[in-house]
């Protein structure tokens, strides 16, 4: 694309990014999105992982194994997207956390639970909160409300985002390698079949995390103060 020429194409692609976020709620055709938009798919990955995206990244990783996209560029797109999203949530928690909790008091249970994990596991929690389902979406927001320093969170969050991206891109790539050849004659149904596989894996992961939370969760009756971890 000539950056000094027609600017309509970039705007159309950007519009597609936001349209895709909505359409994906009902149509999970990542393969067609890759085929239609090529390298713009990395921007889609960046934006999507800034919001959420384990399932999305696993699917994309499986298609990287089929040679449709570059797995290294996919990894870095997911890494930077996840890192950027949680930096924003941390800022929101630091700047507006108290106001938002007063407006949405039903968030407090998840925030308090995240702070309890932060107190108990400190650095370990910052490195693994993306894998703690149930409070994952509130964790960086809650840490922003704590006394955790900006620089410490930035460094650990960058590392943690890399661990998360490598885990899920790698898992998708591995599954794509394992099942790709067997499904070579069913390209049109590949996404549906992989969805079934990932759904089964997802149920297993959910059950494991449910058991983990029962063992590890601190009592939730107390209201935890937002003080820095030791």
Tally of DSSP helical segments: 10
The chain-level structural class is mainly alpha
**Radius of gyration over C-alpha positions, nearest whole angstrom:** 19 Å
Q: Note the run of SSEs as H and E.
A: HHHHHHHHHH
Shape: globular
Portion in helices: over 70%
Give keywords.
disordered N terminus; disordered C terminus; mainly alpha; 73% helix; 230 residues; globular
Structural notes for this entry:
The protein has 230 residues and is mostly helical. The chain has a domain at 76-162 and 186-216. The protein is 73% helix and 0% strand. The protein has helices at residues 8-23, 30-37, 40-51, 54-65, 71-103, 108-121, 123-128, 136-145, 150-180, 190-216. Helix 5 (71-103) packs across helix 8 and helix 5 (71-103) crosses helix 9. The radius of gyration is 19 Å and the shape is globular. The chain starts with 7 loop residues before the first helix and ends in a 14-residue tail after the last helix. The model is unreliable at 1-8, 21-27, 184-188 and 218-228 (pLDDT under 50).
Q: Topology, please?
A:
Blueprint: H1 8-23, H2 30-37, H3 40-51, H4 54-65, H5 71-103, H6 108-121, H7 123-128, H8 136-145, H9 150-180, H10 190-216
Helix pairs in contact: 1-3, 3-5, 4-5, 4-9, 4-10, 5-8, 5-9, 6-8
Tell me briefly what this model is.
This protein has 230 residues and is mainly alpha-helical. The chain has ten helices and no strands.
């Amino acid at each position: 694309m000539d950056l000094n020429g027609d600017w309509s194409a970039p705007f159309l692609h950007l519009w597609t990014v936001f349209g895709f976020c909505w359409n994906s709620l009902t149509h999970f055709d990542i393969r067609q999105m890759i085929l239609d938009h090529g390298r713009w798919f990395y921007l889609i990955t960046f934006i999507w992982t800034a919001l959420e995206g384990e399932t999305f990244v696993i699917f994309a990783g499986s298609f990287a194994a089929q040679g449709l996209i570059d797995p290294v560029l996919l990894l870095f797109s997911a890494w930077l997207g996840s890192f950027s999203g949680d930096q924003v949530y941390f800022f929101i928690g630091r700047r507006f956390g108290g106001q938002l909790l007063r407006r949405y008091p039903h968030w407090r249970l998840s925030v308090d639970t995240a702070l309890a994990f932060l107190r108990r596991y400190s650095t370990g929690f910052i490195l693994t909160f993306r894998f703690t389902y149930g409070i994952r979406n509130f964790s960086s927001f809650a840490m922003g409300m704590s006394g955790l320093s900006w620089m410490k969170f930035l460094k650990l969050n960058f590392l943690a985002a890399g661990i998360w991206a490598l885990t899920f891109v790698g898992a998708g790539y591995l599954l794509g390698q394992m099942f790709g050849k067997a499904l070579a004659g069913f390209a049109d149904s590949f996404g549906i079949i992989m969805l079934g596989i990932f759904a089964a894996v997802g149920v297993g992961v959910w059950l494991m995390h449910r058991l983990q939370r029962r063992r590890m969760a601190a009592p939730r009756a107390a209201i935890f103060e937002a003080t820095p971890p030791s």
